[in-house]
Backbone:
RNA sequence: GCCCGCUUGGCGGAAUGGUAGACGCAACGGACUUAAAAUCCGUGGGCCCGAAAGGGCCGUCCCGGUUCAAGUCCGGGAGCGGGCACCA
């Protein structure tokens, strides 16, 4: 028996595809294009199962679209800048570039063994000057267009490591590596003005109808548009005002205090003359920003002694506090407090004994007796205790207050956003240098285009904490391009999210000496199907949407939305194992028992943990390379596609892999050792088909239709099930009856094309064995014969009072009367009706008859 | 706290409001084999009646509703998971 030789076969076809350049893409005006993209990997060292799943999903789409006649672009690259390379440099004395390029070489080789239909000629790495020089150019264009600014901002500062930390790197208020309490420090940083697009980025979400609803919602919440009013309160005895943002201007008559953030300019000013206030502010800055810290933290305030005047109540003065719960980043960094209708304000008012005046009356409450207890009232109601607002509903009152504030020039309706400008400066070496120069005379001077790229120096050391670019003896010292005086290079590099915000555009013209070639991006973009993990639902996908708009503004593209279709795949899970001492064990270090338990290889006790995301720390990882070594890429691909719907998490199981492996061998046996001699391609269809052959032939066509639909909807697990149903039926053909050998041969030739996107190597091999000409990957997608996908006789269910009582055979599209008569004549139906007359009979053609008695 | 999603056999999962459990995994019974692996055939939601053929009742997290008909639609609740979070 000829066993399927995976290793040889897969290598053979991979070489053949590469030799022919089967998946090279080029612009072909007039041909419909299709751009399939999976989120490019970070070169961490090895390919992991998450990658395998991601790229397999994308490859099915790419190969299917190719077969449908689309001009497909399916590229691959490397998100190659980032911190792990610097850590490796520090810990193992390997240069970040070497570490990164070595990893890329390893991972590229691993990826190539998966048989992906990628255009490798377009490969790019973001750490290559050939990529990042164009990023620098884009930055300069954005800068010139006013989309970039430099400003002082509070950042997380690690006083031990001497570096800024991202929010994600602050755990419980402490630096993730040093463990030192993080300080909020004001530093000059570079920002992209993503907030300029806050409205547009929100509004355009609605048009992204091929994005998951969930991701659109997350982005909407993240941008956090909320409308309300700005109110400017006059400070008593001073010329200036405090500007406050509120979503509840209707509760203005319930106001009992004003509060500003400890980081507010007014607090700063007052602290200069008030040591106790200065101490209070310092204390506020100390305390952590973590969830737990906030939860535990009490509302605290410091009475500045200042008073503000109520805009609508002459003579009413209200105290001004500096309060720890007011955020400088949101709104104007100041609030008015209405304790009756805001829980935080209520907590604060109770602590400092401030008045609580209810101004929204819940429906059915008596205005004379209604009072606020420990819970602020935030629901709907009627305004009272509020002069000219009395009796109005909340929405009307908001409008009225807005109108009056405007008339008094004391405020106006406005919209604020949770979204903040994107801080892109990082005090890191392994990133794209920000191409500006600081000159004492000229200020910030952009690096002239002719001096690009600003290259990273190779000779850096990592033996000191902080930014190696800053420590470099010569790199930062340059002459001002403007005045020629001694000046200093910017030593910050870009956040790596900048690199990934436009790589999909660079893929359209990856070797161009400009960031992108307009004809190429105009032809290929937007990405028709983008596939990746949901963990990028906000940052990467939002930044890319901003970048596309910025590129349009600067003339590099004509569209706003980079990704027309988005699919977020589930994660790959595996059981975890621990031995008696609690040490994590790799799956290959345990022996599985039949009852779901496990032992160590020498019989020791093992605790089987729940299935969770594969992670190195828990050792519940399976190396893709090992799976490909023993089962081949097609097996891994088939298992991942068939076991779970792609959007859900997938549990990796040895048994499931075995199942996929068995199926591949079974298909191969059917093709290599068919039960009868198979007619060559093109043989005419026999005039007569046995009943079995006829049925199988109909199933072939039904399967074409069903699989096409399933793949189109990315329901690959269903597509695989449908193909298996077909192969089960073809397998049952003996090849002896009239036409059976022909149906078997033609059915297999179609089956091979249907499974081609999923198990491409096996499909090529079967195609060749079946005498197909050319490569399978160049074959068009099969077409279903509409006449064959409907049966002449259909099974119709018969219900009595909604309960199934019989199944009857009827000619397709039988007349209603005929269906009714047949249904009422079925013995079980007669019995179930127990002699009662049918009150009503519902006939759904070709499906069901329901008799109501 | 706010927002969102999910819940179907032992397991992964199928099912345009129309025969719940396709397809597979694990399991069990059998064939082949000295034996095992591989392979092949068969059984498979629960309970009940029947020797069998077959039939009955219950069943898609819980409670209620709409409908001739609900896993699917609507209202309420529980559990699990995710996102955001002192956002005024």
Residues:
């Amino acid at each position: 028996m000829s066993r399927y030789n995976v290793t040889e076969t897969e290598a053979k076809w991979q070489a053949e595809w590469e030799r022919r350049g089967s998946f090279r893409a080029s612009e072909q005006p007039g041909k419909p294009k299709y751009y399939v993209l999976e989120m490019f990997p970070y070169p961490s060292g090895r390919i992991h199962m998450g990658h395998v799943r991601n790229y397999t999903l994308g490859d099915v789409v790419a190969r299917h679209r190719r077969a449908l006649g689309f001009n497909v672009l399916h590229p691959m690259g490397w998100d190659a800048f980032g911190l792990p390379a610097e850590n490796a440099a520090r810990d193992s004395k390997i240069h970040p570039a070497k570490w990164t390029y070595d990893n890329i070489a390893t991972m590229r080789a691993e990826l190539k063994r998966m048989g992906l239909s990628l255009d490798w000629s377009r490969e790019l790495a973001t750490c290559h000057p050939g990529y990042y020089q164009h990023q620098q150019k884009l930055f300069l264009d954005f800068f010139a267009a006013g989309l970039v600014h430099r400003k002082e901002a509070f950042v997380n500062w690690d006083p031990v490591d001497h570096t800024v930390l991202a929010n994600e790197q602050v755990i419980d208020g402490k630096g993730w590596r040093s463990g030192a309490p993080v300080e909020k420090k004001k530093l000059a940083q570079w920002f992209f003005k993503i907030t300029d697009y806050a409205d547009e980025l929100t509004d355009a979400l609605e048009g992204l109808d091929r994005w998951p609803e969930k991701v659109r919602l997350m982005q909407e919440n993240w941008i956090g548009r909320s409308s309300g009013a700005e109110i400017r309160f006059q400070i008593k005895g001073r010329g200036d005002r405090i500007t406050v943002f509120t979503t509840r201007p209707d509760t203005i008559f319930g106001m009992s205090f004003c509060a500003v953030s400890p980081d507010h300019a007014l607090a700063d000013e007052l602290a200069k003359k008030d040591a106790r206030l200065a101490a209070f502010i310092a204390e506020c800055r100390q305390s952590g920003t973590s969830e737990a810290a906030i939860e535990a933290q009490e509302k605290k305030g410091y009475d500045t002694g200042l008073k503000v005047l109520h805009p609508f109540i002459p003579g009413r003065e209200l105290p001004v506090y500096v309060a720890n719960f007011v955020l400088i980043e949101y709104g104007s960094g100041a609030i008015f407090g209405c304790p009756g209708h805001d829980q935080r304000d209520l907590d604060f008012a109770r602590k400092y004994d401030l008045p609580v005046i209810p101004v929204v009356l819940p429906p059915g409450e008596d205005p004379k007796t209604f009072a606020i207890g420990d819970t602020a009232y935030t629901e709907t109601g009627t305004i009272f205790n509020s002069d000219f607002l009395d009796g109005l509903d909340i929405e009307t009152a908001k409008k009225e207050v807005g109108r009056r504030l405007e008339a008094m020039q004391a405020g106006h309706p406005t919209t604020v956003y949770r979204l903040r400008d994107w801080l892109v400066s990082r005090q890191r070496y392994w990133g794209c240098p920000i191409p500006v120069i600081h000159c004492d005379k000229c200020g910030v001077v952009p690096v002239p285009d002719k001096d690009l790229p600003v290259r990273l120096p190779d000779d850096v050391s990592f033996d000191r904490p902080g930014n190696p670019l800053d420590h470099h003896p010569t790199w930062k010292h340059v002459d001002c391009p403007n005045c020629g005086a001694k000046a200093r290079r910017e030593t910050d590099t870009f956040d790596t999210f900048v690199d990934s915000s436009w790589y999909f555009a660079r893929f359209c013209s990856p070797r161009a000496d400009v960031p992108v070639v307009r004809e190429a991006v105009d032809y290929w973009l937007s990405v028709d199907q983008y596939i990746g993990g949901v963990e990028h639902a906000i940052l990467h996908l939002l930044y890319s949407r901003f970048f596309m708009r910025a590129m349009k503004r600067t003339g590099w593209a004509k569209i706003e939305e980079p990704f027309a279709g988005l699919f977020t795949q589930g994660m790959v899970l595996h059981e975890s194992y621990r031995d008696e001492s609690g040490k994590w064990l790799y799956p290959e270090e345990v022996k599985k028992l039949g009852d779901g338990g496990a032992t160590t290889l020498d019989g020791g006790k093992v605790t089987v943990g729940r299935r969770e995301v594969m992670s190195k720390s828990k050792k519940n990882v399976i190396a893709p390379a090992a799976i490909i070594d023993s089962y081949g890429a097609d097996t891994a691909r088939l298992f991942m596609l068939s076991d779970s719907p792609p959007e859900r998490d997938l549990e990796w199981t040895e048994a499931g892999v075995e199942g996929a492996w068995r199926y591949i061998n079974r298909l191969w046996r059917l093709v290599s050792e068919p039960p009868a001699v198979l007619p060559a391609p093109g043989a005419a269809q026999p005039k007569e088909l046995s009943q079995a052959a006829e049925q199988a032939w109909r199933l072939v066509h039904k399967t074409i239709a069903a699989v096409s639909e399933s793949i189109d909807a990315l329901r690959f697990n269903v597509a695989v099930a449908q193909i298996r149903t077909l192969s089960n039926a073809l397998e049952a053909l003996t090849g002896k009856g009239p036409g059976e050998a022909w149906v078997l041969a033609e059915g297999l030739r179609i089956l091979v094309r249907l499974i081609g996107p999923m198990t491409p190597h096996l499909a090529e091999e079967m195609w060749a064995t079946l005498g197909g000409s050319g490569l399978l990957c160049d074959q068009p997608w099969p077409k279903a014969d509409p006449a064959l996908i409907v049966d002449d006789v259909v099974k119709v269910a018969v219900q009595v009072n909604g309960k199934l009582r019989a199944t009857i055979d009827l000619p397709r599209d039988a007349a209603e009367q005929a269906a009714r008569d047949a249904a009422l004549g079925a013995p079980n139906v007669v019995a179930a009706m127990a002699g009662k007359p049918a009150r009503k009979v519902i006939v759904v053609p070709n499906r069901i008859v329901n008799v109501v008695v």
Q: What stands out?
A: Residues 691-712 of chain A form the longest helix (22 residues). Residues 86 and 92 of chain A are 10 Å apart (CA to CA). The longest strand of chain A covers residues 148-158. The two ends of chain A are 62 Å apart (CA to CA).
